[in-house]
Amino acid sequence: MPSIVLATINARYAHAALGLRYLAANMGELQVGTEIVEFVLGMRAADMVEVLLARRPRIVGLGVYIWNAEETTKVAALLKRVAPEVVVVVGGPEVSYETGEQRICALADYVITGWGDLSFATLCRAALAGALPHGKVITGEQPDLAQVALPYDLYNDEDVAKRFLYVEASRGCPFKCEFCLSALDKTAWPFDLDRFLEELARLHARGARHFRFVDRTFNLKVSASLKILEFFLERLDDRLFVHFEVIPDHLPDSLKAAIARFPAGVLQFEVGIQTWNTDVQALISRKQDNARAEANLQWLRTHSNVLIHVDLIAGLPGEDLASFGRGFDRLRALAPHEIQVGILKRLRGTPIARHTEAFGMRYNPDPPYNVLATDRIGFTDMQRVARFARYWELVGNSGRFACARVLLLGAAPFDNFMRFSDWLFAQSGRTHEIALERLFGLMHDFLTVERGLPSAVVVQALQDDYEASGARGRLPFIEARSRASPPAVSSHRRLRQQRHVTGNG
Ligand code: B12
Ligand code: SF4
Questions:
Q1: What angle is formed at CA 428 by the lines to CA 424 and CA 433, rounded to 5 degrees?
Q2: What CA–CA distance (Å, rounded) separates 63 from 94?
Q3: What number does the ligand 1 atom closest to the CA of 89 have?
Q4: How far apart are CA 424 and CA 217, in angstroms?
Q5: Which ligand is the nearest neighbour of the Cα of 342?
Q6: Listed residue (311, 283, 313) closest to 297, CA to CA
Q7: Ligand 2 pocket, mutate which of 168, 171, 173 (most atoms under 8 A from CB)
Q8: Helices first, then strands: H and E counts in the chain
Q9: What is the pLDDT of residues 64-85, one digit of tens each?
Q10: What 3-state DSSP class applies to 313?
């Protein structure tokens, strides 16, 4: 039985927790008595506590992040109620700042802020020796990365076969974007590259093919980026998939040459644009050369096979809806594979808080701390943007409406999609769980009735999308409508009606 359990609630099963594996890898002599237990959002707190207590731990360490803060608070509360003798330690980005304001910190016996790699083991040693420290909040020690044991052997065979494997070639970020927690880092610290690549090679030899780099900026130090890309170029196969977070305005020719050698389906870049508005960029201390970013995105789209996801943030201080819309259209013109529209969040500890009063920023007091209104975007419009973001995932990013999307966006993507989004919500009253086939029908109605596009054109586009999704036969809403035709109508007339709808007549 382990005496120490390290647990967290992941956003989904596919996301394995790298942070806990670092802690476990650095437990030293305590490692044999340490077990990692991972949960997934949606599980009941009492059931999680039962799983934890079944291990009869003396210490439970909980990894707390924005996506699991509320659930983990419930776990900590139940744990301390049922088994008060268990020492509960919390750590992770969510409890690294504003600890005095959080119920989970009040419930826990100890809070380790920041890096936990070495400090968790130190605390456990003290606790097991009966020498518990007095203060509750412990500042995590920043380790010399050369001294940190790498955690990759702790990915088990199931992780290797079925989950995203998070890997880390560097920690920290030298930039200071005020909405981001990494703005608090002084710089970026690299792991020894050869040592890291040896670990990657071992994972690859065990069958791992899905790697996600958590480095804040993969292309910061080009010599290291090139070496990593070379590593993967030497191991290309049909299953390989590698994800990187990339800054958009830094793609020197040597890097482009390496990127261009990858076939389709291997590389995915998440590129933060966040805003094109230079006044807003200045306000939030984001240094970005827009012209260069634009040229690089264009290059990636036309000269490489990289799958490009670009992030935009709505609700930044100083940005109104019109400016956000212009930014969306500017990005759309560059045709990235996905645009990820996020609503600004006030993450605990981030410097963006300094703009709260001047820009009338009203944030949700509970996770995910999304902005509800600003002096330029009122609550009602922010709600509209949030629905826009959700529907954009369904229609714009899902890849299911490649043909119909062209009709939908037309020459004014933001305005047209916002109109669709408002209409769709009025019709359906929901942003989740809209059956795909119903969505096809609603798209048809919007494009024909609201936008006045010819039915034949719309049906053809939707039918093409439907077939591209692997479905056979006619679109179900057309089928349903033809079935619903009154029996008195002659088959000849029914056929004519049907042709009218399908555009084949
Ligand atoms: C992977 C990831 C995700 C995954 C989820 C992973 C999972 N396990 O489920 C996905 C893609 C789903 C995701 C989504 C989001 N994420 Co995210 N994500 C990350 C990312 C890139 C990597 C995390 C990681 O493995 N880091 C490497 C390890 C080594 O660091 P670490 O986890 O921080 O762990 C260290 C310490 O925190 C501490 N520690 C960790 N656990 C414990 C436990 C104990 C007991 C102790 C003592 C210490 C300790 O010690 C570790 C070693 O030093 C980070 C950025 C980053 N590079 O860290 C952002 C990050 C965690 N995400 C962040 C945010 C804001 C989000 C989103 C809200 C973004 C959005 N869409 O707007 C969403 C929320 C999703 C939701 N469902 O609500 C913020 C977190 C803010 C917060 N307070 O938690 C981060 C830090 C990014 C940032 N720079 O702002 N994310
Ligand atoms: S948004 Fe990206 S570049 Fe800016 S501080 Fe965060 S990680 Fe660094």
A1: 105
A2: 9
A3: 45
A4: 37
A5: 1
A6: 311
A7: 173
A8: 19, 16
A9: 999 999 999 999 999 999 999 9
A10: strand
Q: How far apart are CA 25 and CA 335, in angstroms?
A: 42
Q: How many residues does the chain have?
A: 505
Give the ligand 2 atom nearest the CA of 176.
5
Q: Which of 66, 58, 75 is nearest to 97 (CA)?
A: 66
Amino acid at the residue 395? V
* Residue 58 per-residue DSSP state: S
Ligand nearest to the CA of 170: 1
Percent over 90 (pLDDT), the chain? 91
Question: Distance from CA of residue 57 to its chain's centroid?
Answer: 32
Tokens standing for residue 56 = 């009869």
Q: Which of 20, 66, 346 gets mutated to test ligand 1 (max ligand atoms within 8 A of its CB)?
A: 66
How many alpha carbons lie under 13 Å from residue 112 in its C-beta half-sphere? 24
Kindly report, residue by residue over 187-208, the tens digit of the pLDDT.
Answer: 999 999 999 999 999 999 999 9
Determine the Cα angle at 340 with ends 335 and 342, to 5°: 145
As a whole number of Å, the end-to-end CA separation of the chain is 73
